[in-house]
Design a protein that fits this description.
Elements (H helix, E strand, L loop, with lengths): L1 H35 L10 H15 L16 E2 L24 E2 L7 E4 L13 E9 L5 E3 L5 E2 L4 E8 L3 E9 L5 E4 L10 E2 L5 E3 L10 E2 L5 E10 L9 H10 L8 H9 L5 E5 L9 H9 L2 E2 L8 E5 L6 E10 L1
Parallel strand pairs: 6-17
Antiparallel strand pairs: 1-15, 2-17, 3-14, 4-5, 4-7, 4-16, 7-11, 7-12, 8-9, 8-10, 8-13, 13-17, 14-16
Amino acid sequence: MRLKIFVPLLALTLSVGAATIARAQDEEEMVRGSFLTTRVNSSGKSTSSLIAGSANAAASSGTSSSGRTTGSGRTGTGRTTGRKSTGRKSTTRVSGSGNAQSGNTTVAAQGNVTVTNATGAAPTYSGAIGLGYSLYMRDEQGNAVRVDPARDFRAGDRIRLALETNTDGYLYIFHTENDGEPQMLYPDARLEKGDNRIEAHVPYEIPWNEPGVENWFKFDANPANERLYVVVTREPLPGVPVGEQLVSYCGQNRCPWQPPAGAWAQLKASGQAKVGVVKSKTYGQKQTQAEQVAVTRGLGLEQTAPEPSVIRMNASSNLPILITAVDLIHR
């Protein structure tokens, strides 16, 4: 009798488990596809715009059309976006303590796909703000190699963080050490005169590199828990100095700029929205030449470029801000 009861229960458990895995895989494809299809392809158009054009043409002819491209190719190329070389200057500043910053998205640490605050309407991700990032570490030959942000880092390790958004907007990066007071690392008055506007799928690295000059964050001998808050917005954040205002502030005060406690608490609270996350399962790939060129020349990444190690997207297209907490464990 026990066996007769056990077998149906086991079948039910396996069925529920398979359905959960299937939903997670569907969620992963939604996040990845929504982010990567806004990259351009070799024709100079994003896949999402091509699909929309095909759908419109089909509608006018009385036929139907459907399709989706995930853009998960593995070879990198660059494409000019109409943006001239930025001429950004290099900086080797890390923080007041001299520690490096980078790391692992907190909500993605437990699995391949995570949806935080999963109550309310089902996520669609279409048109929502997305951020992709990859963490690189310098190997013994000087190559930039992708590493898992969840790993522990030791004194002497050198790393940098590559960022890519799926929308034009504004980028802010704040740093805290051991949950201490935040400091604004970007925009920086020494880079592009404090300008923080970004273009969709044009990669940005921290610390910034330019041809002939490679910068890395180097871990010192003081263990700490570092956290980067990478903030992407559709409109500038009120009360945060940028451009000429930031240049003027840094000329008269001590930089980096630190947000007031109340404003900082409010900013962090705005990052509690529902988010979908996809995280890579493999690491060790060297940064491609095309990726390096895209960074230093301000070029948009194509569909065939390697996808970021971590992709995070708001579940709603109505949200004007995406905040990513990037943790680093420095042993």
